[in-house]
Amino acid sequence: MDRPIAYDKLAREDRFVRMRARDVAELKVEQGLPPFPDLASRESIRERVHGIMVGELQAMEGAGRTVYDFPDAPWEFTLDMARQVWDESRHVETYLGLLEHLGGRVGEFPESTILWRCACAEDAAARVAGVNRGLEGLACDVFNQLIHIAQKIGDPIIEKSVDYVLADEITHVRMGSRWLNELTRGDAERRRRAIEFQETIDERFNLGGTRQDGHHEVVPISIAKEARKLAGFTDEEIERLVKSTQRSQVY
Amino acid sequence: MSSERLSGHLSVDDSARRIRNYRYAEERVMRVLGGWIALTPELTAKLLFGRHVWDCAQHADAWGRRLPELRAPAQESEPANDAIVAFMRLLETPEGPRQTLERVAGVYAVLKPHLATVYARHLASANRVYEPPTRRILMRCLEEEQRHAAAGAIVLGRLAQDAGARERVVEWRRRLLAALEKAGGITGDAAAPLIDESVLGVAPEAVAPDLVQAPPAFDPAALPADLAAAVDAHRKAMESSDEADVARWIVPAARAAVQAAFAALAGRLTATRVVGLAGIGRQWMVKLRVESARATSLIQLRWTPTPEGWRIAAGDLVSTEPLSVAP
What we know:
The complex is a heterodimer.
Chain A: H1 21-30, H2 42-69, H3 75-101, H4 114-118, H5 124-153, H6 156-183, H7 188-204, E1 211-212, E2 221-222, H8 225-230, H9 235-246
Helix pairs in contact in A: 2-3, 3-6, 5-6, 5-7
Chain B: H1 12-37, H2 43-66, H3 82-92, H4 100-125, H5 132-159, H6 163-183, H7 204-207, H8 225-239, H9 243-248, H10 255-261, E1 269-280, E2 283-292, E3 295-306, E4 309-322
Antiparallel strand pairs in B: 1-2, 2-3, 3-4
């Protein structure tokens, strides 16, 4: 097997329709629809859940590749990544179940592969910065919002299962924080590049400006400051993220 | 205490060497399963690998932590010989999207049953007075390898549904077993048989809950009735190579681009089938499997409602594969 593999080798059952996220968003805007699910209806929640399900699938695939791609990395790093593979496999199962719970089906909405592409970074430090801190940090924001909506509509199935996934994501961000530090110890340039990669991802994934600072009732996706602090983000990092959302463009 | 109770099978150094051999196998299979997840299309197999990467990691870790207790450096792996390295390389070779059968068969019908066999034999001979630390790890690894092999057998049964597929499994298993025999198993000295079926007696129903339930297969009935009628008419036009009729279903502004995208499909199509359907607002992406005498292709067509009814607004050729599934 190549280390790493080409992006386009990501294998899917035929039922999945793959498209660029930007193209999907543009097609929706052309139809007068919001570019991303606004969670205002059950169908919109189902679309979000489908998006998360494929994201979890790609997160599992990405962590699996990290186990394979870096045989010379510290053993404890490999152990953490192997653990993450297992966690993500449970998340996929959870979201498959939620999709069914919401009356949806696998492949009902297009899949974009942005997460997978981030998981293919050549440097292990960039992968943990980008995926574990950038994308799993985003997952903390999105899941926090989903839990809030589940509470609001009185759906304990979504509320409880997503809360367990959120707990795992916080653990994954912590792993990312630990390994970003350990893998780049004594190599300031490598650390700079990894953090830069994470910041690029933070900016790209602001969901068209819908992720913002503020309460759930006021903004579409609230930055989950408490969950992020639990996961090891510093106040300064959270502040930087808030600022990046203020200048984010629709991607 | 009788002195017989203190009789031993392996020296401390031999035990450490054997454990490094175990660690080598567990670590390698952990990495290979991890690497394969992205390369495997079928959700059931993908999630099977995803479930077991962590178990294999824990096995490797437990063996690696046992080593310093046996006067050896921690977390070191050692292949028994060059032939076992060659076996592992062979096991890893099926990485194509249509080689899931070989991937599952290699790990779950050869390596893991062999590991269970070796662990069971070691456990039966390990001294109960001074080797309990090793025995405990053996018991855990044995139980989990048995469960993995049983879970893999269920998935393999679901994937290998026709005689051709079952033949591929038999042939690949035969090749791998020959390579494993050449190595003398993962420890280099394993006695025949390398797989003892009597230690693999985990009932499928006992491990079925470990497996992720496969979501139902795509059902073309998911297409709204009016869209299904348009898609079927367009498919029939494609199958009959009626270019004017095919073009009729494409909005005029998109005709040239769609025809260019599908130029590589030139040639008589033998069959078309709807395999996927994804919604984008009021539009639908319809995915078709398109077969000719030489190749199978996947295409995606974006259907949009127009005053004239459903029409294709865009199309992409996703992939084309020659008609050969041999590994």
